[in-house]
TrEMBL record, chain A:
Lipid metabolism is among the record's keywords: yes
Taxonomic path: Eukaryota, Fungi, Dikarya, Basidiomycota, Agaricomycotina
Subunit text: Homotetramer.
Name of protein: Short/branched chain specific acyl-CoA dehydrogenase, mitochondrial
Organism this protein belongs to: Dendrothele bispora (strain CBS 962.96)
Domain Acyl-CoA oxidase/dehydrogenase middle: 111-205
UniProtKB/TrEMBL annotation, chain B:
UniProt protein name: short-chain 2-methylacyl-CoA dehydrogenase
Catalytic activity: 2-methylbutanoyl-CoA + oxidized [electron-transfer flavoprotein] + H(+) = (2E)-2-methylbut-2-enoyl-CoA + reduced [electron-transfer flavoprotein]
PROSITE patterns (UniProt xref): ACYL_COA_DH_1, ACYL_COA_DH_2
Domain Acyl-CoA oxidase/dehydrogenase middle: 165-259
UniProt xrefs under Pfam families: Acyl-CoA_dh_1, Acyl-CoA_dh_M, Acyl-CoA_dh_N
SUPFAM superfamilies per record: Acyl-CoA dehydrogenase C-terminal domain-like, Acyl-CoA dehydrogenase NM domain-like
Upper taxonomic lineage: Eukaryota, Fungi, Dikarya, Basidiomycota, Agaricomycotina
Species: Dendrothele bispora (strain CBS 962.96)
EC assignment: 1.3.8.5
Functional pathway: Amino-acid degradation; L-isoleucine degradation; Lipid metabolism; mitochondrial fatty acid beta-oxidation
Family label: Belongs to the acyl-CoA dehydrogenase family.
Amino acid sequence: MIRETVRRFATEVVQPKVREMDEKEQMDPSIIQGLFEQGLMGIETPSEFGGSESSFTAAIIAIEELAKVDPSVSVMCDVHNTLVNTVLRSYGTEEQKAKWLPLLSSEKLGSFCLSEPASGSDAFALQTKAQKVGDDYVLNGTKMWITNSYEADVFLIFANIDPSKGYKGITCFIATKDMGIEIAKKEQKLGIRASSTCTLNFDGVKIPKENVIGGEGKGYKIAIEILNEGRIGIAAQMIGLAQGAFSLSVPYTYTRTQFGQPIGNFQGMAFQFAEAATEIEAARLLTYNAARRKDNGLPFVKEAAMAKWYSSQVAQSVTGKAIEWMGGLGFTRETGVEKFWRDSKIGAIYEGTSNIQLQTIARFIQKEHSQ
Amino acid sequence: MFRNTLSRSPKCIVSRSSVSAARTFSVTRHHRSEQQLTQIGSLDVFTEEEEMIRETVRRFATEVVQPKVREMDENEQMDTSIIQGLFQQGLMGFETASIHGGSESSFTSTIIAIEELAKVDPSVSVLCDVHNTLVNTVLRKYGNEEQKDKWLSLLSTEKAGNLGSFCLSEPASGSDAFALQTKASKVGNDYVLNGTKMWITNSYEAEVFLIFANINPAKGYKGITCFIATKDMGIEIAKKEQKLGIRASSTCTLNFDNVKIPKENIIGGEGKGYKIAIEILNEGCIGIAAQMLGLAQGAFSLSVPYTYTRTQFGQPIGNFQGMSFQRKENGLPFVKEVAMAKWYASKVAESVSGKAIEWMGGTGFTRETGVEKFWRDSKIGAIYEGTSNIHAHTDVDKDKLRTMWCESS
């Protein structure tokens, strides 16, 4: 049912705006509103806090369906649900959940602030400081590459309350825009252009002590665990994206004739379709299996890394082929197929680069295969 | 400028027809005899003239083109001063005879120029490529003396500076190029053109157009004829495409509505268009391979140095073994070897430029550094001047050497 709801929303509300949002590099506020109205911004949140109380797999399905139409809208929904909501649900106190989850389910967009100019893959070398002043904290530093930040009201910010402790000082704070969070720069990107990606400055931003999530020094653990889940969300975005491009381009090849027949009938093309479809299916199974493992309380970190790495590769490969199947038309911006290819590239970079995923998987292999 | 130096050293000049079918991408011919010319040369050895051309183009690309690349891409508009600059530098008549204002250089020199331009901007590269390898070459090979006298200097000299365009594809004929439908009706001694061409590179800025039209559809492809025309004969730009990549290179749909073409504007004779197009595209695809090679190199050279300055986990990310293995796979020697085939070069271009983005992480994904542009630009390599599927098809079925290597005919 959630698949059907999201599919309808994506097709009727999002689709007509995709190209314009991409050309303008701007998310249409009515789409953010629509996501809230459809109940897609609190998918796993308990109903007492205004959520749908659904499973993680349901969130994955929603992310996938949105990505079939617009990967920018998909990632916005993904970060909000799998990173922001989940941190609060998993590590928030009852007061914090009661205060923040309803806002996040009904009207306020969330943003997850970990990366900095000098710490991307090496996330825990972060330098944003949180100085204790009385009972409260004062934040100083810069975050970079922050998704949703242009439109967000609620920010999860990882800062170090005690740099002498290294990563053990990293703490998760929740803040609102009006506490003084400044948008220093909005990136101009290759793809997912409608998804805002900004550099944020914190200049003496005061955060009350009740806004510490999970306790002092727990930020490292929170970030690691949440990103392990979050990458299943990205995998879902990638498989949706691949499917979207496939569904757009293949029918065209059965209508476009050259040399007296539909070009899709040529065996060379047909074999390419078969390979691409198989790869999408394999990526989908990896992704769903990782999601189901998590829902069933099984270890899923290795499977999540595999799903994210593989899905991003498949997305890039299939969307690239989809352009070529459409020939010159695929190369113009009119049909929307080239946009899927541009959007796919980020899959190998954010929420853990492909090289980081490979390293994660390799570590599990080493553990499993050595005495 | 190399053009002046050339006129002092005619021994450096080798025309294509004097080289055997096994001629390689580059031949060491400086101070060698005719016999030695037929030996396979090294890919790393070039003549003095070729090295000079490389240096000239590299300087032009770095000093004149580079500062404008991003703006031209964002605006989807070729800066006219760059087109002027190409003419000024003598880069628009490589193989053209000097009596017609050209450099009287080799095909290899053209390839080198296309490659060097693509390292900086594949859009500028393809503009130069189409003008030289398609338009100029058709005139040189198939034009009569009057036509060569009339048109080549317009296309080569700085004074005239006429950009050329090659009009073959149509909405209903891409890969199946010879199913084209533009008609040329004979009216008295002249012809009247009616039809539409699509995906035409350079057409927004061009003055001179080679147009393939059928003078007798009943004869099928045997009626296809090559005409030369100027913009002011009534060629109308119906649409300029908004593209994924090579955005500064204009790609337009053209309409011909009773465009009158005098009989002396037929190139090669009535019904010879099919042969001309086939032969010229076989050469042209090598130009695209050169563009893709330069593109891949440009992306590689932009991204790899960054990985030696960007530190994470306490060291430059380029030092990690995983990264160095990826560099080796995508690296220079490999790319050079496969530059021969357009099909493979386009794959390598896409793969290398794609990796180059990833090596630069988030920074690679922004439009600021210019590395993502190389990836966007690379995709057309698998589509124009013969799709990858078409090359896979022809390379398998036909004489592989003939399709992949430029052969004098």
